[in-house]
Structure formats: structure tokens, C-alpha cells
Design brief:
The chain contains five helices and six strands. By secondary structure, the chain is an alpha+beta fold. The protein has two domains: 6-101, 2-Layer Sandwich (TATA-Binding Protein); 114-173, Orthogonal Bundle (3-methyladenine DNA Glycosylase II, Chain A, domain 3), CATH 1.10.15. Strand 3 (46-48) and strand 4 form a beta hairpin. Bound molecules: iron/sulfur cluster.
Length: 178
Amino acid sequence: MFLERITITYVEPCWADANKIRLKADFSRDIGELFPYLNAVLPNATYNPHAATLTIVKEGRLIVLYPQRLTMAKARNTTDARQVLDWLKERINQTWERRDRIEPCYETRSRPTALELYQWLPRTNCRQCGEATCLAFAAKLLLGEQALDRCLPLFERDHRHLREAMEELVAALGTSPA
Ligand code: SF4
């Protein structure tokens, strides 16, 4: 078996949705070499070869894969998260077994939309970033015309978890967050 375990290492409330959780997990081995193959077979994958990240949205759960770990946001609870991790482990192992028959894809095939980025902003339309609305800020972030650190509320303690999710999304976009 290529990947034996995905071990949850950290769980906390998802501050974007108080009824859900956010977690971190470690792979039992480095899976980075498989990213172009997973990119070819997983729908809605966003691959960034430069940042070595693969982002997946599975039924509302945002999963960012790094070679040796992952983060997941908006899981319903730990049972739900473990089911998604079991699904992911199975897909990783299936992809490994079938890799000789898969054409690896090294391109970023899809990007999050402005609305998806907007979900991870404070959504107060406070204008501290210089934009009239959070959605306008999200749209400019997507285009690389705004920097994440212009959203000062995002860096306040209460929004730490939103910020971490946004930093992961921006890293997957390949757009500098600074
Ligand atoms: S500073 Fe942040 S919270 Fe305020 S409008 Fe801009 S994006 Fe929205």
C-alpha cells in the first residue's frame, strides 16, 4: 500500500461556521510525487506546482494537500472528517496503483471563485482594505490586485482561523499574500 495512514494531529472549531470543525493531519509518507496524477483524476482539484499544493473542495469541505500533511475546513465533526480522510486515502492509493495508465496533469486546471474566497473573509464590508465590499476585495485578490494583509480585521485574534484558510487558498492560487 502506498499510503498507510492519515493521522489527525489537530482539531479546532471552524470559525467560519461554528457548527463545523477545522483540522490538520499528517500523511504516513510524502505524497508530493502523486500530485500531478491526483490533479488529473480528482474533480475540482486546484494544483499549484510552484507552491506544491493541491486544493480540493469536497461537498463544501475545503481540503488543502501538502506533500506531508493536509488541512481540512468545514468538516461536520471528527467522524465526518475521518470518513473524508478514508475516502482520500483510498483515492490516493487507487491513483498510485493506476499511475502507469494516468496522464499526469501539471497545470492548474481550476481556481477558486471570488465567492469562494469571500466565504473566508470577515464579511463586514468595513472598507479598511480600501474596497467598498468584502466581495470586491475577494475579486481583486483573485486577480492579484489586492494583498491579503490589507484586510486588517483578518489578522485580529478572532479571525485567526479565517486567515489561515485564506492563506492556504492564496498559496494555492500562487498569488502572494503579502
Ligand atoms: S478590510 Fe476585510 S472585512 Fe473589511 S471590507 Fe475589506 S475585506 Fe472586508
